Amino acid sequence: MTETVVVLGAGYAGAGAIKSLEDHLDGSADVDVVWVSDRDYHLVLHESHRVIRNPDVERNVRLPVEAIKSPSTRFIEGGVAGLDPDSREISLDDGSTVNYDYVLVALGSRTAYYGIPGLEEFSLTLKSLEDSLAIHEGVKAAAREATDEDPARIVVGGAGLSGIQTAGEIAEFRDSRHAPIEIHLVEALEEVFPGNDPELQGALRKRLLDRDIHISTADPITEADESTIYFDDGNPLDYDVFVWTGGITGRECLTDAAFENNHNRVNTDATFRTSDDRVFAIGDSAIIDLGENPAPPTAQAAWQAAEVAGKNLARTVRGQPLETWDYESKGTLVSVGGTAVAHGIPGIPIGTFGGPIAKLLKKGVAARWIADMTTVRRAARAWPNM
Ligand SMILES: Cc1cc2nc3c(=O)[nH]c(=O)nc-3n(C[C@H](O)[C@H](O)[C@H](O)COP(=O)(O)OP(=O)(O)OC[C@H]3O[C@@H](n4cnc5c(N)ncnc54)[C@H](O)[C@@H]3O)c2cc1C
């Protein structure tokens, strides 16, 4: 009997799992692989902030699914609207349905607003290519209206990976065009890159300040309106462009799913199985129970999990035991415009460092991902822009 395995999402988790699943099935004729996503390309999201500086980078971070999947995998472009584990049916935005025997949920996350008044209505986000292009256009338009005496004020809310890297790219845009722009990075918690190593936080703070980015920490946003952001403590800040990157939550389409979830992020065990035996989840969509060593919602973790998830989907179809996954941090690489900071890289005795080696490592990770998903040629073309 032919079994149908469906993978939802074309991010690191989904694209990586498709590659791994195809490898482990090795052309088995008794399994149909169906890949569903709302875009017909994989976005290299962890480098998508480069598009803010230069929209031409779009061609480097947009990898068509046809260049990733094997011809036998069927791709359906559509937005997932719901998943019914009883009927084993996925419903799509256009009203059509897709049936499955096993499904991997890899739909990523969406921006969280924590109920702060005005935040969703007045801010731009960074979760898609359209978002990066909208920020580019917003910054460009604001700079056009501004003068050296009255510069455009761009505020980035949230100093995590996306906020820091977004602020860095806006600084790169400003400096390469000599544009009258003032950049503010605002964070509710005590330090930039909250929850991370203090040496790394200090190195990032230094580079952000070196790029003339104003930093405010330990002061949560309490409200935003069409022109001003209000804080718990500090003075209100008028803005021309407001980008909010301060948190993630699960996808709305998983709200009614009948398996355990936490704010629509699906709970799984270390084999990625949910409370339903036929439903698996990885990446930002999932909270994977790894005990003392939880995986962060990063591309790095999704990439690692995807390799094991593809193998486990192939094993489950064959009735074989599943592998458990352990997250292994390969270090942290964060760009601030054209520079980068590296931390905790295995095999390198210095804890935190910048300079050309950090930049090379950051480029190398993106290039390796693009080469693994598509071709070395495509990775080489992307190299200058990473
Ligand atoms: C600007 C920025 C910089 C970052 N930098 C880093 C970094 O340096 N290092 C790092 O490790 N991580 C970084 N991250 C985090 C990283 O990008 C995410 O953790 C990672 O993308 C998660 O992978 P994923 O596959 O779970 O989700 P995603 O990559 O978000 O993929 C989700 C997929 O599901 C599709 N989809 C979503 N909803 C639906 C729907 N309803 N129906 C159908 N398809 C749908 C999407 O189109 C997409 O293909 C960064 C994130 C951002 C935004």
Molecular structure report:
- Helix 1 (12-25) packs parallel to helix 8 (299-317).
- The mean pLDDT is 96.
- The protein has helices at residues 12-25, 50-53, 58-61, 119-122, 129-145, 161-177, 198-210, 299-317, 355-373, 376-382; strands spanning 3-8, 31-37, 41-43, 62-64, 74-77, 80-84, 89-92, 97-99, 102-105, 110-111, 152-157, 181-186, 213-216, 221-224, 228-231, 237-238, 241-244, 248-249, 261-262, 265-268, 279-281, 286-288, 332-336, 339-343, 352-353.
- With 386 residues, it is an alpha/beta fold.
- The chain has three domains: 3-109 and 250-329, 3-Layer(bba) Sandwich (FAD/NAD(P)-binding domain), CATH 3.50.50.60; 119-244, 3-Layer(bba) Sandwich (FAD/NAD(P)-binding domain); 332-365 and 374-385, no CATH class.
- The longest helix is centred in the last third of the chain and has 19 residues, at 299-317.
- Helices cover 31% and strands 25% of the residues.
- The strands form eight sheets. It has a five-stranded parallel sheet with strand order 5-2-1-9-21, with helices on one face. Strands 13-12-11-17 form a four-stranded parallel sheet. Strands 6-7-8 form a three-stranded antiparallel sheet, with no helix packed on it.
Top keywords for this entry?
single chain; about 375 residues; alpha/beta; FAD/NAD(P)-binding domain; 3 domains; five-stranded parallel sheet; binds flavin-adenine dinucleotide
